[in-house]
Amino acid sequence: MKKNFSFVNEIQPEFYSDSKESVFESLMYEYERVIFRSIITSFGLDVFIKDQYGGDVDTIHNVRNIGSDSKMAYKSKKNYALYNEYIEQNKYSYIHKSTTGELSKNEDNDYHNRNKKYQTTIHNARQNAMESTSGVIKDAYTGKDIAFSKHAPADQKASLDHVLAAKTIHDDRGRILSGLNGPDLANSPENLAFTNSSLNSSMRDKDIPDYVASHPELPDYVKNSMIDEYNQAKASYDRKINQAYYFDFNNPNCRQFYKDAACKSLLRGGQMALRQAMGFLITELYFSIRDEWQHCDKTMAGSFNAIQNGLKKWSISVKQNYEDILFHFGEDFLSGVMSSITNTLCNTLFTTTENIGRIIRQSWASVVEATSIILFNPNEKYFCDRLTSAAKVLASGASAIVGVSVQEAIHVKLADIGVADTINDIISDFTGCLCTGLLSVSLLFYIDNDPFANYIENILGSNAENLKNQEILFKQYCAELEHIDLERFNYEISYIYDLSATLQNAVDDKEINGILKQAALDLDLPSLWEDETLENKMNDPSWTLIF
Fold first, then answer.
1. Are 87 and 194 in contact (CB under 8 A)?
2. Structural domain boundaries in the chain
3. pLDDT, tens digit, 9 for 90 and up, residues 178-216
4. Is 193 helix (H, G, I), strand (E, B) or coil?
């Protein structure tokens, strides 16, 4: 029977590969690329991303610092215009008779006499006092009795005070940003307290902490009581402002905040993706031209040819790696979005500087890339290799963060001693780059030579490159096995087993020769001397026997 397929003929002895690549050269080349890309993106390409003092979105915390902080300003022109319009159209009036220390019309504005809540509070308190304590109530600040009588002395006459000053609430940029009504907030029960008319008139439109600081003669218990009342009222007030601006989606100002945050996040994501993509392209361009330059003739023509060949090599590399570029583009876009969101969240609690913004961006870029390597394994690496790659990404990111911090610290110190801005920028940038480079080299070298990592690698496989090559070959064999006749395969295995037993029982060379000839026919193995006899081929001087 003619055998049309033989699995025996498909066995390849080069299944086991042996890599003899220079580990040292590979490491140094990898170090160069990682460090160059880190420096070029962190320092050279940051011109595409403008980090702002206080983030990219207006927050309650930041707008309240406008005026007291010279570097702080509105991020949104719309919010700036709305504030100016409100202040222009809603003037706060304060009427006071200095001769007697009494108010001519109390405070004749929407916060006082013309406010229904304010007047109702006074009326209800007076009625309750007349019914239960003969018109006497407790002073919220001094703890003494005060009366509603018109004939009572000023230090014993009841007067309703805004714990958090009405003028402060009226002018509060955070309150205006939230869109809440000033008189309603000022006259909420948490912000109203009865005290004596003398103390109330003395405070006028000052906040309690400022008033206490300017009147050291006040008894300590009075100061403490006033501060406690103020802190409780301020906490309640801030809670309402934050709730309205950050969490009340029925509030148009809240919706505008999230709209601004989303737009700025997407913009920052695009900027980060563009920066990283350009960093990759510049890195590939530099190393492509450099590799050609190192081996070229250092003449004008040789240099031109090296640049030309480097550009061609770079173009081919970009085309071959466009999927990786797109994948990293998505990573960097996500890191940009997350860094913007994080920066905005931070600015709801404290003001971030430009340097902090850069650190947040770099941190997210490293975290997203490292997470992607571990979870998605875009380059199909073994788990140990993924951990090592992720560690290198985090190490490079940490180095860049330290470099940025050093750059900022040097810049501030040089500015303090009066160094010119141009010289300051050069020195601080150089120092930051140097620090980033040295730290990156140190960390990368340590990661590659870490005894624990090497131990893990030895457990998982001492020759990772060989395993990778075997994986490729194994996949090829699997593809071929899909086309193998299993019945035929089993027949051949059984035949070879029987053939081995027959050869062991052969008595002489002649019998062995006959057995092998028959086996070659059965397995359809090609003859080494083709269609002729061995004797005829041996007599042919042009024939070469190849095994």
1. no
2. 7-13+473-538, 23-55+257-460, 90-248
3. 999 988 999 999 999 999 989 988 888 889 999 999 999
4. strand
